[in-house]
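Hi,

Apologies if this is the wrong queue. I'm a grad student, and the batch job for Glycosyltransferase family 2 protein from Xanthocytophaga agilis produced an output file that my downstream script rejects. I'm not sure whether the problem is my script or the file. Here is the sequence I used:
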Amino acid sequence: MIWIVIPVFNRKNFTRECLLSLRKQTVQDFKVVIVDDGSTDGTDEMVKTEFPEVILIDGGGDLFWTAAVNMGIQYALDHGAEAVMTLNNDTLPTEDFIEKTIEASKKDPKGVIGALEIDVATKNVIYGGEKIDWVLATTKNIIDGIPAPKQTGLHPVSWLPGRGLLIPRAVFEKVGLFDAARFPHYYGDVDFTHTALRNGFPNYINYDAKLMTYPEESGDRKNKVKKNLKNYYNHLFSIKGGGNLKDFTRFTFKNCPFYFVPSYLLIGYLRRMGGYFVH
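Support response: The file is valid. Your script probably expects a header line. Output copied below for reference.
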C-alpha cells in the first residue's frame, strides 16, 4: 500500500485533474492524502464532494511545500504506511505510473525512486535525472548519455525532485522527515534525497514511470517570464525563488564535501545571479 501525499494551495482545477488521473491508474493499491494549506478557491469542498475517498488535511494556511508534505507524510506513517509518494497537484501520472513505480521498487526495496517528467504541451522530456560533479560544480543530465533504446528501467542519480517520488518507510526511520527548517520550499526534496543517498538509500530515476507536468507553473518560471528588478530580486531571495541564495548556501554546507565548498559556492552564486538573464 502506497500513501500518496499531495500539498495544495488553490489551483483547484489542477488538483481535480491530478486526482482524476489517479483514479485511472491500472493499480489502485494506494491511498491519497491532500494537505490543503488554506486554499480560498473551494479546493476543500471540491475534494470532499468529488473525491470522498481522499483524506483531506487542513494545513492551517501558513505552510510552504516542505512543511505541508511533512504533515501528510507524518499522517501516513502514523497510519502504518510502508511507502510514501510525494506528488504535486500540477502533474498528471500516466495510467500505469503507480504500476511501473511498484515494479521498480521491488528491484531495490531500499531505493528512493523518481519519475521521468514530460511536458504536457510539447511531450518533450524535461527531467531525466542528474548526477553532481562537486569538483566542477556542475550537474550532468544523465538522459543525454543514454541511447533511446536504453531509456528504460532504473538509473542511479545524485538526487531527485519531489514530484512522483516514492520513499520507503525505512528512509524516514533513518533520516527523519524533510528539512523544513532549512528548506521551507525549494531544495527540500533535493536535500532529502541526497541525505538518503549518503545514508545508504540509493536514488533512482525510473524511465518506465512517466509523469506529465506543467513546467510553466513553477513559481520561479514566472519570475523569469517578465524580467525586471523585482522579479530578479524574487529569483534570488524570495522563498519561492529558484535561485534563492540562502537556500543554495544552506544546501551546500549541508551536502557538499567540505573541501569543495568554496568553489562550489562561488560558481553557484555566479550562475544564479547571471543565469536569470540568459534563460
